[in-house]
Amino acid sequence: VRRLGVSEAVENIVRQDTPGGVGMMVVKTVLPEGPGQIAGLEEGDVLYRINDKTVAHFVLLEELLDDNVGQTLDMTVIRGNTSVEVKVNVQDLHALQPSQMLQVGGTTMSNLSFQLANYYRVPVSGVIANWLFCILEEVTAVQPYLLKSINGKAVDNISQVIDVIKTIGNNECVPVKYFHISDYYKNSLIDGSIKISHLWNQVALYTRNDSTGLWDTEGITDLPPAREIEPTNVIFPAIRNAEAAKLENVVHSIVKVKCMIPIFIEGNVNR
Question: Which superkingdom does the taxonomy of this entry point to (predicted)?
Answer without folding.
Answer: Eukaryota
